[in-house]
Every structure is written in structure tokens, then in C-alpha cells.
Amino acid sequence: MEEVYINALGVYLPNNPISNKEMEDYLGKIHGKASRVKSRILSQNGIENRYYALDENQKSTHSNAQLAAMACKAALKKSSVLNQDVQMISAGTTQGDLPVPGFASLVHAELDTAHCELASFQSVCASGMMAIKSAYSQIKANEKENALCVGSEFASRLFKASRFEGQEQKSIPFDTDFLRWMLSDGAGAMVLENKPNTKGLSLQIEWVDIKSYANENPLCMYVGSMGNDNHVNGWLDYPDYETASKDGAINLKQNTRLLNKVIEVGVSHYFNLIDQGKIITEEIDWFCCHYSSLYFKQPIIDLLKKGGANIPEEKWFSNLTSKGNTGSASMFIMLEELMYSGNLKEGDTVICMVPESGRFITSFMKLKVVGSSKKIAPKYSIRKVEAPGLNINRNPTSEWLVRQLTQIWIDFENKLLEIPIVKQIHQGTLSIENYKLLLFDLRQQVIDGSQWISRAASNIDISIFELRSAFIKHTATEHKDFQLLEKNYVALGESLEKIQLGEKNIGSAALSSFMFQRASSPNPIDLLGAMFIIEGIGKRLAGYWGNLIQDQLKLEDNQVSFLTYHGVADENHFHHLEEALNHPLMNMELARQIAKTAKTTALLYHLQLKELGNY
After folding, report:
1. How far apart are CA 95 and CA 102, in angstroms?
2. Could you point out which of 88, 92, 254, 390 has its C-alpha 20 to 30 Å from the C-alpha of 178?
């Protein structure tokens, strides 16, 4: 059985924080009247700020799937898992954007990840823990090496004043109005892996325990209409949608009289875990408890004390008051803040508790902090984006070309900063495995470099001998580059045969195909545009990246020399390019061709780095 670790957490809270005074500016006043119960409920729940994916016109600014996807992207950004390497997406929510298909499918559609397994969980608060348990179990059983887990809520759209006005209700029942001032929007995500972070802290999941008590308890939180016989009619049981709406069958409700029972069931589950030896109260360093209101915190404490399992208040952690009650996302959002607070230390025990009032589900999770806060990965500042300087003769044609190439480069470098592997290099989260993958995929394209340059030289007429010479000089400096790269790969503990037998990823294949196609054309002078991009990478980026990679991975010179060498050598290569661009035969038509080839090369080089590992 594999161990399972939470290696990164991400959160997305839409728009700006909403204070208590502003809530009805976004949810609206029903028939223009302020709520009579709002102030009382807010005084009890203690929430001071929350977030809505609505604007002041009650229009949605995001979908629930988009909230989830933004949290997933934030988590992936902090991890060493590349987008295309995600093996599973497990998602939980109270209500997705559509009844069909599953929520995980909608989230996957918003992400730039590859084909993977999906798991969708629809419940209330416990759906997020269900998503964690599913991913945890897959990795534990060695079915997966990693998984992306997310809990997300978009509750506010259920409480828009216009919705209740459309139901022709003069006022709404307390069981619905209560929830208007309790629930809010947001998403949290985590990256789970079968190995801990190489730097900084990870949260090892020791177990996840979820219990339903629905067989013993009535509905507490639900969507539907309950008749006098305590039978609940769902909106699909009505003859039409309008009738269901007017009967309140589409409204979310809470039987507040049963909420104390939820606390009792949750604490009873906690005591059962003590009896099983899964929890030793004295060993708890942090207790992350999702209570929907501060009103319920003291009753929980009182019950724990009565059972001889008191947890000192300084060990409790919650961000309910500042982030709001986000249901299935709450534990993700709580753990994200705790994880990056700087307060955790190696060996700490974290107990997570998420009760659900839907029909009484309680869930617990035990985490162990592993790693060291002293090893937090460094973050490197991103340099100002600017094009490699070109020193060429000043005339209208050359000035136009320089402007074009400058803008092409700036667009190219900005897009590079969004590629997962480049993000990892700058954030200090690059793993040794992903660095090896970078070398492996670059080698397959680098080996073609001198060949297409040689072919281009052979197709240049003798009448423009100087340009042919420029290409030949260039290939002379490039033709052994792949050997330096191979030596770096072997110095990292990999076999030479493995990299030599590698194949191009789909981006490298497209790039090489384009280069050879252009090089096979008569007088392919436009390839000077390709040289500008490729040599520009060497001159401006390769050496810089090499230094960052060497620093964060603590590598020897012979393990990064391919990149660091180009940071120096490509300065000289650039001079050869400048000489070629100064050729007397340069004209506007040729300049346009050079700019177009530069733009195409930039697009394909970007694709090569974006599609690492995709063969």
C-alpha cells in the first residue's frame, strides 16, 4: 500500500469580499424589503466577510465549474505535477451547474489537463471529503500516482431575490431565509501524490473516515417541498417546473431544529474513533473543524469536555469568519490557509472534522505534517519581459523588421511564462523528474537543429554566398549541442540509451517538420526568423533557467551545462544572425517572410514545451 500526501493546496474566492452590510446589495431585497432575520442570524454565525460569484445585478460572474477550475490551477501551480500528468480529478459540490453531466466532467472541461479518470460527488459539506477519500483510496491502492481533488460551491445564486419574487412569495420561510445569511461561494483544491514534496512541507493522509446516519435521522438540509405527511416532493415530481417553483420545491431549506442533533452525531463519531485507537486527543496539534456557525462551536466544546476529550481552544483552526461558510470547499480552504501560514511544523498531527446536516453525515481525516519548513522552495522573481537586442543597420526596412521581431518575442516570452514547466522553474517547485523530462524532450528536437540549418545552407544560391556562409557558420556551432545535453542527462543518473531511443513530443514533431519544410525550399532566407527565436532563447532564457534549476535542485555544473553554456555561447551566435540580417539584399518582402517564420517558430516552440511528455 502506498502512502498518500497532500503536496499542494489552492483556493479561489470570487470577486471582492462582501461585508455583512453589503450582502443584500448582491442577493437583493425581496420585494424591496430588508430581511427581518438577517441581523440575528449574522450575530450568531459570526461571519464577517464572504465571497459571491454574483455582481450587484445578481448576474453570475463565474460558473461553479470555473470556480473549481481556478482553485485547481492554483493548487497545480504550487505543485511539481504537470497539467498533462494529472491522473485523476475527484470533485465534490452541493449542486453543480447542470443536472447532467457529473460535476467533475464540467471541471475537467475547464482545465488544460490530459485524459484522466473522473469521480463526481454530490452531497452537501461532506461531498468534498468524499472526493478526498476517493482520490486517497486510489493512490493508496497504487491505482494512481497522483490526483487533483476539489470542493466547490456556488450557493449564492440559489438566494437571489428575483428567484423568490418569481415564486410570488410575499416572504420566504425561515428555513430558507436562514440559509441566505449562512452560505457563500468559493472553491478549494489539493494535489495528492504517492510521495511527499522534496522541499517544504506535505500533509500525509493517515486515514479518512466517513459515516452516514441517514438511516436513523430525518432530512435536515434539502431541496424539495415537504408535505404535512413529512413526505418530500422533489421538483421532478411536479407536473411542470412552474408549479414546482411556486411550491418552493427548488428552494434550499434547513430544518434548524435538528442542527443540535448534527453536533451530537459528530461528537459521537469522534468518540468512536477514540475507541478504535484512531485518535488520541492529547496528540492533536491542530483541530480543523467545519462548523457552519460560531453558535455551534461552544456546544461542540462542551460535549467534548463531557466525554473527557477536550481539545484546548488554541489548537482549533477555522477561517469561517473571514472566508464564509463554503460547504464542501470549507476544509480545502481551511487547510490551504493553515498549510501556508508558517505555523505548521514537522510531526504535527492535524484532525479535520466536517459534519453535514443534509441527512446526517460526519467525516474525519487525520493528517501528519512531514518535511521541514526550513526547506521551503525559493521563489525567483520574474525578470522584465524584453526582446533580445538586435544591432543591425538602420533603414526603414530593418527598423520595421526589428519592431516586428520585438513584438513577436514579447508575445512569445509572455506565453512561455504560463507553461507549467516554466512556472515551476520560476516558483522553485521543479522536480528532478520534470527536469529530466525537459532534457529528454529537448534532445529530440536539438539533434535536428544542425541538420535543418545545413539543409537550408545547401539550398541557398551561390549568388548570395554571404548568407550561405552565415548558415554554415551557424550549423558548425550547433551540431554537437545534443552531445552536451546527453551528458547532462547521464550525469543525472539516467542511461544514454534511453534518451537516444526517445521520440519527439507532438510539439517537437511539429517544430522539426516546419523547419525541414522551410529548409528544403529554394533560398530559405526566412529561416533567419527561426534563428532569432531559437538563438534568443539561448541568449536570454537558457542560461537564466539553467542557473535557477541548478540552484533549486542543487545540481552540479555537468548536470545543467547544456542550458548554462547556451546562455554564453548564443551571444556569439546572435552576432552571426545580425550579420545575416545586414545583408544588402534585405528588402521588405523578405523582411515580412522572416517575421512570419519567427512568429510560426515561436508558436511551435511554445507548443514543444507545453506538450512535454505528450508523444
Report:
1. 10
2. 92
